[in-house]
Write a structure and sequence with these properties.
Length: 547
């Protein structure tokens, strides 16, 4: 399925650190095994396969189900974590994912499952036909876009088993896409009960040689490029071949990874390896920002967390800039494994190629390759918050004097017409007028860009603590929901804990209560159950009313 994740909501009106952290994970997961003694990925998969056979009943596996490996993590001490997707009678199971945890010797320890419901369906033949499901999804897209006239509407249903929403049931998962009146893409994923036609859930799915460049937002930055004949390409062989191309103000129309039409990504070229002018009138200037953001995000994940590329396989993604017409958004798309940036309308937003936006979008790719947090409800809020948190940490990691680290999301791209200093505020999310500071039972009903506020608030408190302070010239005053005073443990530890929770413990259905458990487990692994870090995680979650 094509997954696209936005930096903003679906409609405009809803408008030196690094070096220590990479060793932190290895040093705190004692005892450290010699590299030669650590199990390989292949060994971990084989050990997990044996565990599946021995613990099939506990994992809810039956003869009607099959599994496939999505991701593998082997800790420094040899502990193994193998993440699986599952099918039922050859149909994908939404909420069927799980993680098997193995001891260094390969023996089974435990598992985390997205859902615990056993699957037993009388039939996998739908009573609602695929064309009917497509029509229902198209109506849902039109309703979500307030009845706006849409062009080129296309829908393609896929039959699945939905185990995320109560008792497992046969369902249609339909991706419906179209273009709005400006020619920009709109899309929605709709879950429909395949027996009754009732809508189960829906969410936006439109869910990125050494030279130098003059950027819009980050000053003059270094760029690794490729010399082809006598021309330089904005393509970085040192980071998996990542490149930046010009979308020529065109847009995509894709369904489930099959593109009816796709905007170009014509790689930028230059004669002297000095790119851009620092002004948006030069089309390559936005490309400089996008490529630089990709470089810093790649380096952050590799140098701090040991992850080699977004998918962990050393392969690069690519960027497209100048997408659509006055497009006020940026998004990550799994189907192209790429980041895409609009130019903004110039009144509310400028070109969306800022450093923290790049980190945000590429982190959606990391999430899709690990926990694959469902993009609706509380899981969707956690998905968006993960991108805000890690995008913010990328900005701090870059240590760029023209774009200093802060806890504001998208502060470089907003214009006077937007009416706020940033898209989102991590110290007090409600300052944007929509986001939640504190958890409540209704948080999951918010747009995912606003339900993310609870986790963003937690992350700020865990890193910096509560109360008033000024950091890098920005004033913050973070309250708590329970009246407590919280002491921070720093950004490095926040990043280490959140990354481990995301890649080892979270699943597609993780909600806020589950995120508390996942981050506590991560803190226990990294620092010990009696540590001040473990206690700080619990205190920060309590301070936002989770637990």
């Amino acid at each position: 399925m094509s997954r696209t994740r936005h930096i903003r909501g679906s409609r405009l009106a809803t408008a030196g650190v690094a070096a220590g952290a990479a060793t932190l994970l290895a040093a705190t997961l004692a005892p450290t095994a010699h590299a030669a003694d650590r199990p390989s990925r292949t060994t971990a998969i084989a050990n997990a396969a044996s565990a599946l056979v021995a613990h099939a009943a506990g994992l809810g596996l039956t003869a009607a189900e099959d599994t496939s490996v999505r991701d593998v993590i082997v800790d420094a001490d040899g502990t193994q974590h193998v993440r699986y997707d599952r099918t039922y009678r050859q149909l994908p199971v939404l909420g069927g994912d799980f993680v098997v945890h193995l001891a260094p010797n390969g023996s089974y320890r435990s598992a985390d499952r997205a859902t615990r419901s056993s699957i037993s369906l009388p039939s996998v033949a739908p009573k609602v036909a695929a064309p009917k499901a497509a029509d229902l999804a198209v109506n849902a897209l039109r309703a979500a876009n307030l009845g706006e006239v849409l062009k080129g509407v296309t829908a393609k249903p896929q039959l699945i088993v939905d185990a995320l929403h109560g008792a497992p049931k046969l369902a249609w998962r339909t991706n419906v896409v179209a273009k709005d009146s400006l020619g920009n893409p709109v899309a929605r994923t709709v879950l429909t009960d395949a027996r009754t036609g009732a809508q189960i859930d829906a969410w936006d799915s439109v869910e990125t040689a050494t030279g130098d460049g003059q950027s819009l937002y980050s000053g003059t930055v270094p760029l690794e490029t490729t010399l082809s004949g006598s021309t330089y390409q904005l393509k970085d062989a040192t980071r998996g071949g990542t490149y930046t191309g010009d979308a020529a103000n065109k847009t995509d129309l894709c369904i489930l990874g099959i593109c009816i039409s796709r905007a170009p990504s014509t790689v930028f070229t230059d004669a002297d390896n000095h790119w851009g002018t620092g002004a948006s009138s030069d089309r390559s200037t936005a490309a400089v920002d996008a490529q630089y953001g990709t470089d810093e995000t790649w380096d952050y994940y590799k140098n701090v967390h040991g992850r080699n590329g977004i998918a962990g396989d050393g392969k690069g993604s690519y960027n497209r800039v100048h997408y659509g017409n006055s497009y006020n958004n940026a998004f990550w798309d799994d189907s192209c494994f790429c980041m895409t940036y609009g130019d903004g309308d110039g009144t509310q937003l400028g070109p969306l190629v800022a450093l923290d936006v790049a980190g945000h979008e590429m982190t959606h790719g990391v999430t899709s390759k690990t926990a694959a947090l469902t993009y609706s409800g509380e899981s969707g809020g956690l998905n968006e918050a993960t991108s805000d948190i890690m995008g913010t940490l990328v900005e701090w990691y870059a240590n760029n004097s023209s774009d200093l680290g802060d806890y504001l999301i998208g502060e470089k791209i907003v214009r006077s017409g937007f009416g706020k200093a940033a898209l989102r505020f991590m110290d007090q999310p409600s300052k944007d007028g929509n986001s939640a500071d504190c958890w409540s039972s209704s948080v999951g009903n918010l747009d995912v860009h606003y339900s993310s506020g609870v986790a963003n608030h937690f992350a700020y408190l865990l890193a910096e603590g509560s109360g008033a302070k000024t950091i890098n010239g920005v004033s913050y005053n973070s309250p708590t929901c329970n009246g407590s005073s919280v002491s921070g443990i720093g950004r490095d530890k926040l990043g280490a804990i959140w990354y481990r929770a995301l890649t080892v413990y979270m699943t597609s259905s993780t909600n806020y209560a589950g995120a508390r458990t996942a981050t506590l487990n991560a803190a226990k692994d990294l620092y010990g159950v009696g540590s001040s870090e473990y206690a700080a995680v619990g205190a920060a979650w309590s301070a936002v009313s989770v637990g």
